[in-house]
Write a structure and sequence with these properties.
427 residues; globular; alpha+beta; disordered C terminus
Length: 427
């Protein structure tokens, strides 16, 4: 049953701390940190979400954090860095790292065709056009997508849940993410043509779910088993996985939405094994994690594949992961879009800031990030050795809104381009 939430001012206290070293970036001041805390946690005070958590680390030390709101509707216990969240698309960077581990172990090369592991796409064609009756006109690609293109979402696929485009609608009708197995998902996707010539453009797509299937086909085990052994257990990410043990379900955060201007709790599928295993474990979504665990993962990325004395992935592979992999005529290119995405690239699992002015994001160029559909987000800023992780659970407040709010509050905006530069760029 859905119940309204009544949040009284001061009922749940925020936990705020400023510790650690002086900032390498002088614009990240204590005043900005206080504003950040007020801006982010105000979403709970204004009854936009039921709870909120965030943490920021610099040079490996916690610098600021904030927590507000109850874990779930049946308790007044406030959230903490060990509350479990549904992280949805923040699964994608984890799956990509899993595939890069197999790359490093020699199971494939980036130029290998995906048909090496997904033979269902041997005869897949490219959509050229379609008529009003839905008849599709296609042509044969020069070659199938490569593993590198699959990792960079330039393989020619669509997602089926983005709500626009002819092939998006066609794939949505097949409900690939409701498939019982990875094989079923591949069969559904392969029944349609590519949306674009492989390698020709970036499009956020079902590629990450196909990556998960490839991991399972290479290893002969479930994605959950592989990631647990290769990443979660070595890194000490003890609360991350595709399901939550029955004894820990009380630590799972509630989920809310705003209906008729009232914040209500929603009924979500159980986080337990039986419900989560009804469909296959998906590479593009489905992980549960905590702020603490995802900070460990982000630290592993910041350190180039190492955590302390433990190295799980070579630095070169991690650079592939976060460096822009979109190419146009062989040269790095940005996402083809107007508005904010125009300043972004994409690596092998994360978006990268290529031009922060165009992207309307104040973090330095080279910062990489991702977020999940229910409001989890993170970024890594290599220039200043900063990691940020935020967690909420909402169907109504977009995660990219929280990413922009927190990032643009924390960092000084770029200085305006000089008049001469602007004039020169308009020629």
């Amino acid at each position: 049953m859905r119940r309204s939430i009544f949040i009284r001012s001061g009922l749940f206290a925020a936990v705020l701390c400023f510790v650690g070293p002086a900032f390498a970036n002088p614009v990240i001041t204590p005043e900005r940190l206080k504003t950040l805390d007020a801006n982010v946690l105000s979403y709970v005070d204004e009854a936009k979400v039921s709870n909120m958590s965030y943490g920021m680390w610099q040079s490996g030390q916690l610098t600021a954090s904030g927590f507000r709101g109850p874990v779930h509707e049946a308790t007044v216990q406030p959230v903490s860095d060990t509350v479990i969240h549904r992280i949805y698309s923040m699964t994608k960077p984890v799956t990509a790292i899993g595939l890069l581990i197999l790359l490093e172990e020699g199971y494939f090369a980036l130029d290998d065709p995906i048909t090496k592991f997904l033979p269902e796409f041997e005869d897949t064609l490219v959509l050229a056009d379609y008529d009003s009756d839905g008849e599709m006109f296609t042509y044969r690609p020069v070659r199938p997508p490569t593993m590198g293109q699959l990792l960079s979402h330039t393989a020619g696929f669509v997602y089926g849940n983005q709500g626009f485009g002819f092939l998006e609608d066609k794939l949505s009708e097949l409900q690939p993410l409701a498939s019982a197995t990875g094989d079923d998902l591949v069969e559904k996707v392969a029944s349609l043509p590519y949306n674009a010539l492989p390698g020709s453009e970036f499009r956020y797509s079902i590629s990450s779910d196909l990556q998960g299937v490839i991991i399972e086909r290479i290893t002969g085990e479930t994605l959950d088993t592989f990631l647990t052994r290769e990443l979660f257990e070595p890194l000490g990410m003890t609360d991350t996985g595709f399901f939550v043990e029955e004894t820990e379900l009380n630590r799972v955060s509630s989920v809310t939405r705003i209906t008729d201007d009232v914040l209500i709790y929603t009924k979500e599928p159980s986080a337990g094994y039986e419900a989560q295993a009804a469909n296959f474990f998906e590479g593009g979504q489905g992980l549960f994690s905590t702020m603490r665990d995802y900070q460990i993962f982000a630290t592993f990325l910041m350190n180039g594949g190492r955590l302390g004395d433990l190295r799980l992935l070579g630095e070169e592979r991690v650079e592939l992961f976060h460096d822009n992999a979109i190419r146009y005529r062989g040269l790095p290119a940005r996402q083809g879009a107007n508005g904010d995405p125009a300043g972004l690239g994409y690596g092998y699992g994360v978006a990268t800031i290529e031009d922060r002015r165009l992207a309307n994001l104040n973090a330095p160029d080279g910062t990489y990030f991702w977020y999940g559909a229910l409001g989890t987000w993170f970024w890594v800023d290599p220039e200043n050795e900063i990691i940020f992780v935020g967690m909420m659970q909402s169907h109504s407040v977009p995660a990219h809104e929280m990413l922009k709010l927190s990032m643009n509050t924390l960092y000084e905006p770029p200085e305006p381009e000089s008049q001469s530069t602007q004039e020169g760029s308009s020629d």
